[in-house]
């Protein structure tokens, strides 16, 4: 496990206190104000104030347009909930059973699983209604986690996307209970937001407020929701259209949320705000940039491949016809594409405190795709805790250089957020006659070792030749590791000279990865490479064994240079 030198103390109170102080002033002030209101929210008088004067009625909103997983729905129908990294059968009480960790509780109370259950069709509606009715009975009032604004937003979005649920099977009393619950939670969002939230969490809360107000036909709360949306969108998106949290998975999630809002407003005959339409148009090319050849997502910053077809469907609903961005300088990603080859590089500084809970220590890592096949990857991410959570966020889980088993960004001890990050990350791109060059650097190893990592990439015009030059400048550190994590479908074998690795893809295409070390030694034999075990977490719910090509050795005190080449091999006859 890479060490997190410079990470804060591990005591829970001290960790949270440090993280709170690191927040930007506006966000810090918002969280302090929100926490000051918590005693009011917990009071019985506040609960009564959330109900309107008249019995609420819910207008139909567009049904959930996104595909779900019937297999998971069948498990849920039997009372088995696999959420996060935990499986709990027949949870009692529903939202907070004994033994459930916070990630499980967040996932359950968000009700994202409801779409999987309802994917079974009309026969699943009574089961879903029973779960919702139980939840309402067991959660009659405000509770800190279940009523956290982002969780409420996701829960309202999940409920209101299911017309069969809202109809309550013709049970007028139950339909009224659901409508009252929607009203109370929507009013709470109108009172509480922005609640010190930022990023995708705030967007999820605002989405729930707007959808709830549309369903209730409440003009005042709708005006509040649209005002909150107008305020947050400029802070959600960077100038190039990338989401501020720099995660492909959150880019997809945020764009889906915005598409849902546009669909709901259009269905209700409401004008779509210009800033909403513009945000969708700007985000789509960046999502295309994050799309691997097989249609899934690139594995950076807490992302997996995503549900099958999710990226294409989102782009379709966004009505996006733009090509993928080649360069997203504000988001910090670069895409080199030539022939059948694509290289995607994380060449940006990690997001700031308060927006870094999904950030990995993967600065300057890259992925390489050949056609529809993933070749060189990062390990990906899945719900986990403890060592597993820290391991998948570590620099060593990415295709880049690690010094002394230390992360280029120090991870918080609970695995969420960064205690330290590179201060300067530089990227410069050049193109000539179809050939592409990318020069990058980061100073994440400067505080501990006085080292700066430089990475230069070159992709020729036909995509058959990718060359890299990794350089560590400085005199610190004892050992280095250059990792190339391979997709599980790639068959790798060492060449006889042990200075190259032959890669064979399922399509039959082959590549040769050759490395040359300058200024360092690898067991006394410059340029020798090795194959080692790795793990692939790119498929949701799967942990697949894989391999990595590793170049390791001693640092001589005068820095290091590693030159490598990934070249296409001629097809076998």
Structure description:
The protein is α+β, with helices and mostly antiparallel strands. It has a domain at 333-569: Distorted Sandwich (Beta-galactosidase, Chain A, domain 5). The chain is 35% helix and 23% strand. It is built from 17 helices and 22 strands. It has helices at residues 12-21, 25-41, 44-49, 70-77, 102-110, 114-118, 125-138, 149-160, 163-167, 172-192, 199-216, 219-236, 248-267, 274-289, 310-317, 386-393, 446-449; strands at 80-83, 86-89, 327-328, 333-338, 341-346, 366-370, 373-377, 401-403, 410-411, 418-420, 425-432, 435-442, 452-459, 465-473, 479-486, 491-494, 500-504, 510-518, 520-521, 530-536, 544-555, 560-569. Strands 3, 4, 5, 6, 7, 8, 15, 19, 20 and 21 form a ten-stranded antiparallel β-sheet that branches. An eight-stranded antiparallel β-sheet has the order 11-12-13-14-22-18-17-16, with no helix packed on it. Strands 1-2 form a two-stranded antiparallel sheet. Helix 10 packs across helix 11. The longest helix has 21 residues, at 172-192. The protein is elongated, with a radius of gyration of 25 Å. Residues 1-14 and 521-525 have low confidence and may be disordered.
């Amino acid at each position: 496990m890479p060490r997190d030198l410079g990470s804060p103390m591990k005591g829970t109170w001290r960790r949270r206190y440090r993280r709170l102080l690191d927040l930007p002033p506006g966000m810090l002030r918002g969280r302090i104000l929100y926490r000051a209101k918590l005693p009011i929210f917990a009071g019985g008088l506040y609960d009564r104030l959330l109900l309107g004067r008249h019995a609420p009625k819910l207008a139909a909103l567009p049904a959930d347009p996104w595909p779900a997983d019937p297999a998971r729905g069948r498990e849920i129908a039997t009372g088995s909930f696999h959420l996060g990294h935990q499986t709990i059968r027949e949870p009692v009480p529903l939202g907070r059973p004994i033994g459930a960790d916070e990630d499980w509780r967040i996932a359950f109370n968000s009700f994202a699983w409801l779409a999987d259950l309802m994917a079974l069709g009309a026969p699943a509606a009574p089961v879903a209604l029973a779960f919702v009715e139980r939840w309402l009975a067991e959660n009659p009032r405000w509770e800190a986690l279940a009523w956290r604004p982002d969780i409420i937003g996701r829960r309202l979005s999940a409920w209101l996307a299911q017309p069969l649920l809202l109809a309550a099977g013709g049970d007028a009393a139950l339909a009224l209970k659901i409508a009252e619950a929607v009203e109370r939670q929507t009013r709470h969002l109108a009172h509480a937001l922005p609640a010190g939230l930022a990023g995708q969490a705030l967007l999820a809360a605002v989405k729930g407020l707007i959808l709830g107000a549309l369903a209730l036909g409440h003009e005042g709360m709708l005006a509040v929701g649209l005002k909150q949306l107008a305020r947050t969108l400029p802070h959600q998106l960077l100038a190039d259209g990338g989401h501020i949290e720099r995660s492909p998975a959150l880019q997809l999630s945020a764009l889906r949320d915005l598409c849902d809002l546009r669909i709901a407003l259009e269905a209700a005959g409401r004008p779509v705000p210009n800033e909403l339409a513009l945000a969708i148009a700007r985000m789509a090319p960046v999502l295309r940039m994050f799309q691997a050849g097989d249609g899934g997502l690139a594995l950076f910053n807490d992302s997996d491949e995503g549900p099958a077809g999710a990226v294409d469907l989102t782009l379709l609903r966004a009505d996006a016809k733009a090509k993928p961005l080649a360069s997203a300088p504000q988001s910090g990603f670069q895409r080199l594409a030539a022939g059948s080859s694509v290289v995607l590089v994380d060449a940006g500084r990690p997001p700031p405190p308060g927006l870094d809970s999904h950030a990995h220590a993967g600065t300057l890592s890259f992925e390489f795709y050949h056609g529809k096949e993933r070749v060189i990857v990062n390990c990906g991410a899945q719900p986990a805790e403890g060592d597993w959570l820290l391991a998948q966020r570590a620099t060593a889980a990415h295709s880049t250089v690690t010094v002394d088993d230390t992360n280029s960004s120090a991870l918080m001890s609970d695995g969420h957020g960064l205690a330290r990050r590179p201060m300067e990350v530089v990227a410069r791109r050049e193109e000539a006659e179809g050939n592409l060059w990318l020069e990058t650097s980061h100073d994440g190893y400067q505080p501990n070792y006085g080292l700066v990592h430089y990475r230069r990439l070159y992709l020729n015009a036909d995509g058959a030749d990718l060359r890299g030059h990794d350089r560590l400048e400085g005199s610190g550190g004892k050992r280095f590791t250059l990792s190339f994590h391979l997709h599980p479908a790639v068959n790798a074998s060492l060449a006889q000279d042990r200075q190259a690795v032959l890669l064979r893809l399922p399509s039959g295409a082959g590549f040769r990865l050759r490395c040359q070390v300058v200024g360092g030694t690898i067991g006394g034999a410059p340029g020798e490479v090795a194959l080692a075990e790795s793990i692939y977490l790119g498929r949701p719910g799967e942990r697949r064994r894989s391999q990595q090509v590793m170049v390791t050795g001693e640092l001589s005190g005068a820095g290091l240079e590693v030159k490598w080449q990934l070249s296409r091999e001629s097809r076998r006859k």
